[in-house]
Amino acid sequence: MHDSKTIQFASQQHQTTYGEHPTVIAYAPGRIEILGNHTDYNAGTTLSTAINHGTAFLLSPADQPGVRVLAADLQQSASFDPATDERLSDQHQWANYVKGVFHLLRPHGIEVDRVNCTFAGSIPMGAGLSSSAALEVATAYALIQHADTSLDPIEIAKVAQAAEQQFAGCNCGLLDQFSSIFGVPSGLIYSDFRTLTTDNVALPAEARFIMINPHIKHALAESPYNERRESCEKAAAQLNQHLDHSITTLRDVTWEQFTQHRHLIDPEAAQRAEHVIAEITRVGQAIEHLQRQDLSAFGQLLFDSHETSRTAFENSCPELDTVVEAAQQAGALGARLSGGGWGGSVVVLAREAEAETLTESILETCRQKGFQPTAEITIPSAGAHVITH
Ligand code: GLA
Fold it and tell me: pTM value?
């Protein structure tokens, strides 16, 4: 499923700006991280879904050298030489995601130049729904199509991740890009970042994910994200000195091994590792609960996840905590911060029959506490694809 309004808007803008129809239209969805917070760069596991909002990236050939790109939602344009690796100025921060993909596809033999591009999207920025990964992935799909070639989806995910790391400064894992690429209608994606494999996990039909966005500024490159990643790497390196098997990442440490050895390592690194190792354990438990269609037990894992985010990983903030508490009081099956943290949205799990009343009750509690979140029941959707060429 794609977002036809977004595509229509982007096409019109493309025609108005460049006076020509796009020859390629690609679309990539945003994502919800359901469980497995900060596990991706620790070679861990996650459950996520692609959503019914995304980014459309369009292009058509141009006569002159260089890439021109219009961010239709912002009504801003930028141009760049895809052969150089210079970042664009802050004013055109968004263009770095695009330029990064153009530049980093080149070593794969996909050297696109002389094009006019437009993108537009329906993923609110800063909502923790990975608008940046959707832009990177949509750009990659469009360029691969334009070059009339193909690339392994795992390689596409890695190019998009490298664009984020090298051109936007966030040392992220692969969760967002995997979710945008491997999305499945009405189901969850299980990703294993050690083997770089994915699987589909069926969801009970009555399960609904409500995204509650308290609208707090969120930019991972400026957040302690990279610092947390370093703490996890430190914890793994220190645990490696105390355990009798080789540890390259936190994925190699079981919960039992961790609790027996955590006192031997740096206390702050241990605290960060606690959340990550607990999350990897919870992903395994979640799959078992979902196989039994036990939504209550699955939901409880979301609450547990938020708790170690709050206390151990310290990537929550008061507004997100308020939303999670409100969800708990309103009788939600589960709720937790979704994505990097320090802002973004809370994902709430509810049964279909209760989703609307529950949402109203959460919003009302938040309003009483002085802030005005927005809410949306999201639909698990298909991954990135090319629409016309
Ligand atoms: C962001 C990053 C992902 C992942 C999550 C936290 O979304 O881009 O790679 O680390 O945070 O799980």
Answer: 0.96
**Pairing between strand 115-121 and 76-80?**
unpaired
- Looking from the CA of residue 173, the nearest atom of ligand 1 is 9
Beta-bridge partner residues of 20: none
Residues 28 and 50: their CA atoms lie apart, in Å, by 9
Q: Is the CB of 29 under 6 A from ligand 1?
A: no
In the set 3, 40, 73, 176, the catalytic residue is: 176
Q: Do 116 and 234 reside in the same domain of the chain?
A: no
Number of other CB atoms surrounding residue 79 within 10 Å:
15
Task: Give the pLDDT confidence of 315-361 residue by residue, as tens digits.
Answer: 999 999 999 999 999 999 999 999 999 999 999 999 999 999 999 99
Say if residue 162 is in the same domain as residue 51. yes
Residue 336: count other Cβ atoms within 10 Å of its Cβ.
Answer: 28
Verify that 313 and 265 share a domain, yes or no: yes
Best CA proximity match to 357, nearest among 189, 210, 238, 244: 210
Query: Among this protein's residues, is 176 annotated catalytic?
Result: yes
Which residue segment(s) compose the domain that 165 sits in?
4-202+381-387
State if residue 38 touches ligand 1 by the CB under 6 angstroms criterion: yes
Q: Could you tell me if 244 and 146 lie in one domain?
A: no
| Each residue's pLDDT tens digit, 190-240 | 999 999 999 999 999 999 999 999 998 655 556 899 999 999 999 999 999
CA atoms within 13 A on the CB side of 247: 24
Token pair in block for residue 23:
């020859």
Pocket lining: 262 vs ligand 1, CB cutoff 6 Å: no
| Residue 256 neighbours by CB distance under 10 Å | 10
Residues 281 and 181 grouped into a single domain: no
Closest Cα to atom 10 of ligand 1: 38
